[in-house]
Write a structure and sequence with these properties.
It contains 13 helices and 37 strands. With 654 residues, it is α+β, with helices and mostly antiparallel strands. Helix 4 crosses helix 5 and helix 6 runs antiparallel to helix 7.
């Protein structure tokens, strides 16, 4: 599958695609650091990577990996068969493969030996460009553009350990081999097209291992064949487009915990590959996967790989990695489970098109973790989750969601937890706030279903187009302020009540000069002396703007953004008071057994009410003096409405 944004990679070679994982308010800083570390691990090598233009002349349709893996030994051997379509006339074909040699009987110390290249039964000549990490194969005759062809590369060796893409380690004394290829480690352990503009349309993986171990790879396990030498071959098939960096394998003494999701015919397995020593605790933690899957399917669309499986495989790195159909997990906290599952939609089905667009992966995956908090824990917990994000985001005054050219040389900036994860997630929430739930979720469903983007790549402008199409108006101002520029607003709220009208003035300052003013709908909550609540949303278009709000009660408190919809900091609220509101309601004599006089200055009574302490209305009146002789002995509330508003006082009847 070719990406329509190939030109992005040709003109901006160092601005490469990206894909990765993160958190909830219950996670502490160490949890987030582990997630970011897993993503920075492979990204550090990418800073010096250049897209291999020598692989641009063909499109991969199918690849089959047939590998021998014994986790007791750091070694890989086998073959990779590739079916490809020529995009132009070809005399050679190039694959990416790191630290290659064609010398027989070599010491395999961090070296891969290519044994042969076959086209059917015909051996092909090949050369090695080790400095550029290339395997260059000479074709027997010119392949014309549009032709489908195939060949197989046989190889063996010890993958290079610098980038830690193919790792042997142990857990409780048992060996394990696992891969973490994101984004450019695949070439360390198999001959591939290590490109971000071409996804493999169909993948098959056959892993031959000792019988005592269990193998895992992408896609659906279709068979296990046992051999006479105490080995077995496990076959997996993945029928969805997948980039090389998401191809993953792991082999150890896994104990499998399978969950069944959905109702036939729309059901699929969630297959979890767990260390035996962690089986009980991990399987208990993984029970939350099903309600999270249900939530994401309800909000967005069906799981993108529902014809195969989802699952988790325990491995030896902190955090996790969202390999298609099977996330590799260093632990099983709910936040990490939610984050990696979210990436199956935002990161795997649609992958961010450049490093600058990393927020399309990380911001959405982080926000979906927040949606889990909202739907499983409730609104109060969700407000706390958002508040923790806002506190982190506003701990510094600057920083973009969409990266600048100058940011691309810094791995720590690309994977900034404050900006690429937390700020990006709250930008997603503010889009929801601006658009409303119905339009927001419909726009994202349209985005995920777009045939030009699905199982391919997207950039920020394409997401914006889908949002605007449903929203019905431009979001340019929003994207300029919150995505492309820096900082956040600070609000000063001044409110004064005059009768049934509250005047609210909104002033704003900003933390960074790149945005002189953030135009946003601002939520305000008015709270009455009797516990009444009135929520208002003020369309704030300039600093100093004044709003008049009708309120049928005396306002005792004004709250700014109580549900934490906005990124902001150090906001102040001042509630001004006039003499009518601040002066007490005059009731005399008090206590009294007969006549009651009401003192409200020159105001006339529009309506007077007598209420019991149990909240029952006893009587009404319209004059400033009245008889209460008919009332039983007790305590009552007297409520009086004038043109200036309501006043309330307490009366003791003797």
């Amino acid at each position: 599958m070719k990406n329509s944004y190939i030109f992005y990679f040709l003109f901006f070679i160092t601005i490469l695609s990206c894909f990765f994982c993160p958190l909830s308010f219950s996670q502490n800083k160490a949890d987030l650091d582990a997630i970011v570390e897993a993503e920075m691990k492979s990204a550090s090598s990418v800073m010096n990577f250049q897209e291999n233009l020598n692989t641009a002349n063909y499109d991969i349709r199918y690849q089959r990996l047939e590998l021998d893996i014994d986790p007791a030994v750091l070694f890989v051997s086998g073959s990779v068969t590739t079916h490809f379509v020529a995009l132009q006339n070809m005399n050679t074909i190039t694959f990416d493969l790191n630290r290659i040699t064609n010398t027989a009987n070599v010491n395999y110390n961090n070296r891969i030996q290519v044994g042969s290249v076959m086209k059917g039964n015909t051996p092909l000549n090949f050369t090695i460009n080790d400095s550029d990490k290339e395997l260059i194969i000479t074709l027997p005759q010119t392949i014309t553009a549009g032709t489908l062809d195939s060949l197989a590369v046989s190889y063996a060796g010890v993958p290079d350990q610098v980038e830690q893409a193919f790792i042997r380690s142990t857990h409780s004394g048992t060996p394990i081999i696992w891969t973490l290829s994101e984004p450019y480690g695949a070439r360390d352990w198999w001959p591939c097209k290590q490109s971000l503009d071409d996804k493999i349309e169909r993948l098959e993986v056959k892993l031959r291992t000792p019988n005592i171990y269990t193998a895992v790879a992408n896609g659906l396990q279709t068979s296990v064949v046992f051999h006479s030498n105490n080995t077995k071959t496990t076959r997996f098939v993945h029928d969805y487009p997948i980039p090389a960096y998401l191809v993953a394998i792991a082999v150890t003494n896994y104990q499998i915990f399978t969950q069944n999701y959905g109702i036939a015919p729309n059901n699929f397995p969630i297959v979890n590959y767990l260390y035996p020593e962690n089986y009980t605790s991990a399987s208990n933690s993984l029970s939350v996967t099903i309600p999270i899957m249900e939530l994401f399917e309800d909000l967005f669309e069906a799981y993108p790989y529902k014809n195969e499986k989802y699952g988790h495989a325990q491995f030896g790195w902190g955090g996790g990695m969202e390999h298609a159909t099977v996330s590799f997990m260093g632990s099983f906290g709910r936040s990490l489970i939610a984050h990696e599952l979210a990436h199956q939609w935002f990161g795997n089905k649609i992958t961010c098109g450049t490093w600058k667009d990393i927020w399309l992966n990380e911001g959405f995956a982080t926000y979906l973790d927040g949606l889990v908090v909202e739907h499983l824990d409730g609104q109060s917990a969700f407000v706390s989750w958002k508040n923790s994000k806002i506190n982190n985001i506003t701990s510094l005054p600057s920083g973009n969601v969409y990266l600048q050219d100058s940011d691309l040389s810094s791995v720590s900036r690309i994977f900034s937890s404050r900006l690429s994860y937390n700020k990006a997630s709250m930008v997603v929430h503010m889009l929801r706030w601006v658009m409303g739930d119905i339009n927001f979720y419909q726009a994202l469903r349209n985005y995920l279903a777009d045939p030009m983007l699905a199982y391919g790549y997207a950039v920020t402008t394409q997401l914006k187009s889908h949002l605007e199409a449903v929203h019905g108006s431009s979001l340019t101002e929003f994207f300029n302020d919150w995505v492309y520029q820096q900082g956040y607003p600070t609000y000063q709220v001044n409110a004064t009540q005059n009768g049934a009208t509250v005047q609210i003035q909104l002033n704003q300052t900003t933390s960074h000069v790149s945005v002189p003013f953030f135009e946003m709908p601002v939520p305000i909550r008015l709270v009455g002396s009797g516990g009444q609540v009135q929520n208002e949303v003020l369309n704030h278009t300039f600093s100093g703007q004044t709003f008049l709000v009708n309120v049928p009660f005396i306002v005792q408190e004004v709250l700014f953004d109580p549900e934490k919809h906005l990124i902001s900091r150090n906001n102040t609220v001042t509630l001004g008071e006039n003499s009518f509101i601040t002066s007490p309601l005059g009731l005399y004599p008090n206590p009294t057994s007969d006549v009651l006089h009401i003192e409200i200055g020159n105001e006339n009574i529009i309506l007077g009410e007598i209420w019991s302490m149990l909240g029952q209305q006893i009587d009404i009146f319209y004059q400033k003096s009245l008889s209460i002789a008919h009332l039983p002995t007790g305590i009552y509330w007297i409520k009086v409405q004038t043109s200036e508003g309501w006043k309330t006082g307490k009366l003791v009847k003797k």
